[in-house]
Input
Amino acid sequence: MSLFTESYNNNKRIAKNTLSLYLRMMIIIAVTLYASRVTLRVLGVDDYGIYQTVGGVVTFLAFLSNSLGSGTSRFLTFEMGKENPRLNTLFSTVKTAHVVLGLVIVIVGEVAGLWVIYNKLVIPPDRLRAATIAFHLSMIGTFFQITQVPYNAAIIAHERMNVYAWISIYEAVIKVGLVFVLQVFNYDKLEVYSGLMCLATISVMIIYRVYCRKVFPETRSRFIFDKNMFKEVASFSGWHLLSSSASSLANQGVTIVTNMFFSPAVVTVRSLALRVNDAIINFIGNYRTAVNPQIVKKYASGDYEDSKRLALSSTRYTFYLMLAMALPLFLLVEPALKIWLGEIPDGLIPFVKLALVQGMFQTFDSSLYVPIYAKGRIKENAIISPLFDSLQLPVIFVLFKMGYPPVTLAWVSAVSYAILAFVIKPVLVHCVVGYSYREIIRLECRCILVGIISSLIPMLIAMKTDVNTIGGFASVLVVSLFSVIIFVWLFGIDKSTKELLIKWTGEKIL
Output
């Protein structure tokens, strides 16, 4: 097979997987946002905030699983890039590790989590019982999610994104269906909701496992535990654990701190804002999920230049995809939130706008981590990034103590990601992987310039148009999308890419 044919097939696979994941994400975004609206109405602002806070405690404890899960995905993908992969041994080893880890997290969580709920969180006394039950059920769901990680990693490593997409769609649909079932019960809504979410998690776990065991032989292997292989995965995951713990501290720890200073209603506002940002980040992340295995496999096979080319070009396209989503939403945030929620909670609009700005910087931070991840040398990143990232929590705590308003935490988070994107990550990629620092900064500056130029005309139209009318909303939306497309074409992509797109489009049309 020629290099051209191989490259074409790889790009075709990336495109196919990306389309599958985008189909998944469009449905999930629509279902999830609608579910949030119904859940907020059924539970009420306070109970919704309580559930998010309790879920924050569980998520903070589950960062251990995310760390080992990242190592699992990387090593499975890397192993598949070798001539003689040992997939059976690797999968069995990490599966055993996840079961043990899940048990440890449940034990630690039940002790530490309950102490936080009873001693640190601001929860009305009459809702303490419901919050505790929600916490216990969330811990059960967390255990099953932890033991499920190796199976998810296997699907991604094998690039079966269509299966991943359909199961995720099922998960989103079943959860929104449970919200409607919730309205039938006369029992405590928060307790019932927590129980139904736990059952949904278990059902998804069963589907993933049945599929993997039928399709991937390595997931049917008997108990095998390779100490040397485990040490290699654990060493990689251990450094990733340090990085993930800081990220979890910044995201979930801030939720807990916010609840210590303000009412559950403020936690609800922040949670809704992050849900908007997460929806877009996950939408864009589908492209990264499709392209990342190729970057890792190319590096594993020794094709370093092609791996670098794909890593840098995908960083650029990830930003442009984010820009196309975030710009119209930023300009239409008020009418969009009215469509979504009906009634907009106080203080939500500035939270959402800052979350969107943060998301733009996040695309650089997450994309530039991939070449470090592909090489497997994440020690420097795991030391430097967390030391900086973890500063968010004490800074926010001090600012809240000084009397600053809740939206301050959104400003701190946005500035933090900007520094990570433009200073810390480029330096790390240069030092660890060997990419040119100037090349990375030039790429980022070019993306930002395209973003600024693309925003000018839509912003002027939004300022002179009543966006709360159908005509005004549609005009700003259309102009924003076309502005991004035009200026990305003019200034955002190179000549060779334009020629390939023109050729591909001509072939499809003719």
In short: The chain is about 85% helix and 0% strand. Residues 1-8 have pLDDT under 50 and may be disordered. Residues 158 and 207 are 17 Å apart (CA to CA).
